[in-house]
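ok so I'm stuck.
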Amino acid sequence: MPRPHQPRLLQLLHGLTALLVPLAWLSGLVVLSQNDGRWGRLPFTLPGDWVDVHGSFGALLWPVALLFGVYALGPGRWRLSQWGNALPLLALALAVGSGKAMQEDWLRQGQLDQLVYQLHLLAWLLLAVAVLVHLLTLLRRGGWPLLRSMLPR
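replied:
not stuck anymore, here's the structure
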């Protein structure tokens, strides 16, 4: 069976996204724990302003997600016909878009009922599920060789 091959640009964009999404998600958990806490808190606290840290990861993720979306609608369009590929990209767009629409001071001021904030929380939950579905469908379709082919070399 021949080894799967992915275009270099797809590998680069996928690799950057795969690096930044977990960093944004984990820093978002710290922000959620320290500034919201309605669903529990982490058993430890970390020093620093994690709203800014999370926002920095989001600021780095925004152009990568935009380029990934442009690639997906252009040369990668045929891959979007598989819902396991389209779902994470849509969830990422919702998460990044709602994050850009938020104001940092909402959390610092305890304004947790903002609709955009609620949408952002939902988007990150959807993104976590979508990435899991994405990985499972890739494993089912091509196994470990297909997953390894997505890593930049």
